[in-house]
Amino acid sequence: MARLRLLSVTASMLVLHGCMVGPDFAAPPSPAVTGYLPEGAPAATTASDVHAGTAQKFSPGRDLPGEWWRVFRNKQIDAFVQEAIRNHPDIASAQAALRAARENVLAEEGALFPQVSAGGSSTRQQSAPATSGLPSSTSGYNPYTLYNSQVSVSYALDVWGGTRRQVESLQAQADYQQYQLEATYLSLTANVVTAAITDASLRAQIDATNDIIKSEQEQLTLIQKQFELGAVAQSDVLSQQSNLAQTQATLPPLQKQLAQQRNQLMAYLGRLPSEDRGEHVTLASLTLPKDLPVSVPSALVRQRPDIGASEASLHKATANVGVNVANMLPQVSLSGSYARNSLTAGSLFSPGNAAWSAAASVSQTVLDGGTLFHTKEAAIASQEQAWSNYKSTVLTAFKDVADALRAIQADAQTLKAQLAYEQAAQNSVKISRTQYLAGAVTYPSVLTSEQNYQQAVIARVKAQASRYTSTASLFQALGGGWWNRVDQTAQAFPRTDAGYFSDR
Does the global pTM surpass 0.85? Predict the structure, then answer.
């Protein structure tokens, strides 16, 4: 046993002093920019005298809240998000993938330690006289029992760091799965918020359309009475009937969109469509945040889960280069065994029944048709591919933030313009109806003003909803504040009762 301990200590010292071939990974530097837009920091948005018309200003460098959806101050949205996090299978899948990746790291770390096996046997046998050079007629060779116990130790020295590079690669894969979990949370929460806002927008559009239908129905009743009195032509009645039918025809498509949007929202919540209990959000119940955080570019590359996942992939590819370089170098291994043999169980551990062996070996591939070389070159090419993918991911991330900033500014201007358009269209309807009754204009002028008003109302509702969805898009583009909350549960960590001997 003393020799085995010496063998283990010697091997450990060799590993500790061994080198690690291949490139060492270094996190890519942040882009050398200070903002997302050519003009620098985005300007505050315009304000409108209508719900969701709040002016928004941007706060560069301000941190994001972990539960960013609470900025809308809506309990139903918060309830939707919490339900989706609890129930959606994508979250459970990402948790399990992370746990599997972490288990693989622990499994590979075992290769850095000596592998020890123990065994014992009991054999009942009888030798033939001829095996001892005696005549086959010789008697007296009685059966006997041979007892054996043995401990074997083998150790593949990680002289070149190939195993450590493999552990590094698997750890990078675990980091990748962790960022994938964060990305799943971010995508799901953003989808739930956007779906709830879209649901509210469609309901508002349906309500506005019903109000317009009611108004046009009242107008039709008035025109019909005037026709009965001979004050207007029948063509005016028919024109109003056509206008009413045209407005009514816009209602089923909106109802269809709402139904399909509800089905999508139920899927995000982990429910079946038939399990819809009717909970919903209204645009009037939402609050538009006045102050919006804007992370500095150097922080964005650490906040975006997709950038983190891409960096982890680059790290893995870099470590794999070292693994393949190490495979081309001589492989050194040590082995040893200690055994005891006896004819009786009681004397198995008596002096003189011990046997031991120790061995060291070195192997080097001499000719393999270029397999190891080209495998290493393939790893280098994969590293270059991962680097290009990382740069592409960074470009997309900065584009997303810039798009969200532009959308927030444009949506505020759009809402202000749509509100003015709606007010003007509403006044036009009143004036054209008055003029028509006075005989100053023909009825087609009334129809045109009514159609413009209908379009203006629907456009204003859509513009209000866009202000909320664009705000949600900004929080998603900035990473969603996952670093300020804990998304991992026990399902993401290795079991503590793994059932093997370990000091971890």
Answer: yes
